[in-house]
Amino acid sequence: MKYVSATDIGLVREENQDMVRVDEFGGNVLAVVCDGMGGERSGHEASSIAINEVFRRFSEGYSGDMDTVAVRQLMTASISAANSVVYTTARMDYKSFGMGTTCVAVYIDDKYVYVANVGDSRAYYIWNGELNQITSDHTVVNMLLQQGKIDRSQVFNHPKRNMLTKAVGVEKIVKPDFFRLKRIDNFKIILCSDGLSGYCSDEEIYEVLQSSPLEEVSGKLIDLALSKGGRDNITLAVITD
Fold first, then answer.
1. What helix, strand, coil percent values describe the chain, rounded to 5?
2. Within 10 Å of residue 148's Cβ, how many Cβ atoms?
3. Which end of the chain, N or C, is less surrounded by CB atoms within 10 Å?
4. Rounded to an integer, what distance in angstroms lies between the CA atom of residue 241 and that of residue 189?
5. Residue 209 to residue 100: CA distance in whole angstroms
6. CA 74 to CA 188: how far, in whole Å?
7. First to last CA, the chain
8. Angle at the Cα of 74 (from 55 to 43), degrees rounded to 5?
């Protein structure tokens, strides 16, 4: 497998509160993107704690012969461990109260693609000539959309567009969503924060992914988001055969 990752502060924010990391485990790959939230440096601290805790916990429990049940348990436990540490840290210092982070993780072995997520950082999978969103955003707007109370034309400009219904570190316990997809030949996965997916269309992202060499993808996607105003931190990881 090959992969690239990148993060950019954007054109408006004073601090980059996103984090991304990709590591190999015996030829398999784990990638995580976190998008922190909170005042002062709390958002950066939350995403940093979370991503480090996910990899620490995953490394401790990793085995090369894990089946789907074991992978699900380990990914869920890793994010839950991150949630506990961020939650506890936020309550030890009043300056960090209310901090939290999104978390989207993908683990890929020789048969399957496994995804776990909390928040609105996304995972996409390219197949059948399309960019397909795997995850479902944990946002008020997406909840209203699913309930039929708004339509897609109202999503982008909705006043609660960025309000999360679930995040790592905000509640004592969090339950990540989990997905398993069969690994296909020439697959391509992208994880990203909403600094990319919130301002660039699926069609625009797909065009860059399909038309650019892997080593140029990160820069071109960040440039695309910057061309839309760069109003948020922009972070992504791309993994392919």
1. 35, 30, 35
2. 7
3. C
4. 10
5. 30
6. 23
7. 5
8. 45
Tens digit of pLDDT per residue, the chain (241 long)? 999 999 999 999 999 999 999 999 999 999 999 999 976 668 999 999 999 999 999 999 999 899 999 999 999 999 999 999 999 998 887 777 779 999 999 999 999 999 999 999 999 999 878 899 999 999 877 666 676 667 666 666 666 667 899 999 999 999 999 999 999 988 999 999 999 999 999 999 999 999 999 999 999 999 999 999 999 999 999 999 8
Copy the structure tokens of residue 52. Answer: 């480090």
Please report, as a single letter, which amino acid is at residue 27.
Answer: G
Starting at the edge strand found earlier in the chain, the sheet holding 122-127 runs 2-8, 234-240, 188-192, 122-127, 130-133
Structure tokens at 96: 């960090």
Q: Which two tokens stand for residue 20?
A: 């991304």
Bridge partners, residue 18, by sequence: 35
Residue 134: both structure tokens together? 């795997």
The Cα diameter of the chain in Å comes to 50
d(CA 25, CA 28): 5
- Structure token pair of residue 223: 């440039």
Going from the C-alpha of 103 to that of each of 115, 153, 183, 227, the distances in angstroms are: 11, 27, 22, 25
Residue located via tokens 């989207």: 104
Domain 2-240: CATH architecture, name and number where available: 4-Layer Sandwich (3.60)
Q: Let me know how long the chain is.
A: 241
